[in-house]
Design goal:
- It is a single chain.
- This protein is mainly α.
- It contains eleven helices and two strands; from the N terminus they run ααααββααααααα.
- The chain is globular, with a radius of gyration of 19 Å.
- The termini are far apart.
- The relative contact order is 0.21.
Length: about 300
């Protein structure tokens, strides 16, 4: 079996798979952030906490209602999205005409409250969540072992990202959303209820975080810190892709996940900072991000 720079192929492709899995979560979470920022102009720091809430909702459904992974995959985004609707209607709606900093501070405080509440209840120890029986096990590809569930996570995240991009960029509803961010009064003159559209957009954005939480539950332990451990990296991904750029969020998520995986193979000590190093370089050369538009 060949080796690349002295690295066995099993180790190389195994780390690339881990990087692709991390990239799948980066892409899903940064996609939700990009949707919310692009359509609402809000920097949603509570996104990581809502991702954590999604994982706990899936765990609650299994623990107390006997609803397994497949049911949670449908119900959890609905529950987290409904929570997002409440947050937007009761809190964020009052901040749209103010500076971005107010929305950032509000959502940061909300993230601390959610994380603190779950930490008070469960501590920092993780709750286990089983892999669904239909996706247990894996297959030997010769050059690496591919667990079925991890392959499913990558495939589902790609489908969700493409579907979201298509809905925003290629459908009439998406064109209304984009127009509402540029000229809400004109869109409202055509009989479209812009406040309701904005509320639903925020709900959809955080529903993506809830979906990512369900997908993450069988891979990582369900614990109150899982969102805060990830959100800083996700924000870096969004900045690299370009704030508000749907395609940039998705492409950067996967590419940076793979880059992180490669770094773990060839320079493990730099794997935790490679995303931030790339962010610094991108901001120096292109402040709007790789796919962002200059304002």
């Amino acid at each position: 079996m060949f080796e690349l720079l002295g690295i066995p192929p099993q180790a190389l492709f195994g780390q690339l798979l881990l990087g692709l899995i991390n990239g799948s979560f980066y892409a899903l979470l940064s996609l939700g952030l990009a949707v919310i920022f692009g359509m609402l102009n809000v920097i949603n720091f509570a996104h990581g906490a809502l991702y954590m809430v999604g994982a706990f909702v899936a765990w609650y459904l299994m623990q107390y209602l006997g609803i397994g992974y497949w049911g949670a995959l449908i119900l959890t985004p609905v529950v987290v999205g409904a929570l997002g609707l409440v947050i937007e209607k009761t809190m964020l709606r009052h901040l749209y005409k103010l500076d971005h900093l107010y929305g950032l501070l509000l959502t940061f405080g909300l993230a601390l409250i959610l994380e603190g509440g779950f930490k008070y209840q469960y501590g920092v120890s993780g709750q286990s969540y089983p892999v669904p029986a239909a996706l247990s096990g894996g297959t030997n590809l010769g050059f690496m072992f591919l667990p079925f569930y991890r392959g499913w996570v990558v495939a589902l995240s790609i489908v969700v990202c493409i579907a979201t991009w298509y809905a925003i960029e290629k459908t009439r509803l998406g064109s209304y959303l984009r127009a509402a961010t540029e000229n809400p009064k004109l869109v409202q003159a055509f009989g479209i209820n812009v406040p309701v559209m904005i509320t639903m957009t925020y709900g959809a954005g955080v529903a993506l975080a809830g979906l990512a939480g369900v997908m993450a539950a069988p891979i990582y332990s369900v614990n109150p810190l899982m969102g805060s451990n990830l959100i800083i990296v996700v924000f870096a991904v969004v900045v690299i892709g370009g704030m508000g750029s749907i395609f940039g969020a998705v492409a950067s998520g996967y590419l940076l996940g793979l880059m992180e995986g490669l770094t773990k193979v060839f320079l493990p000590e730099a794997s935790n900072i490679v995303v931030f190093l790339i962010m610094v370089v991108v901001l120096l050369l292109r402040p709007a991000g790789l796919f962002g538009r200059e304002r």
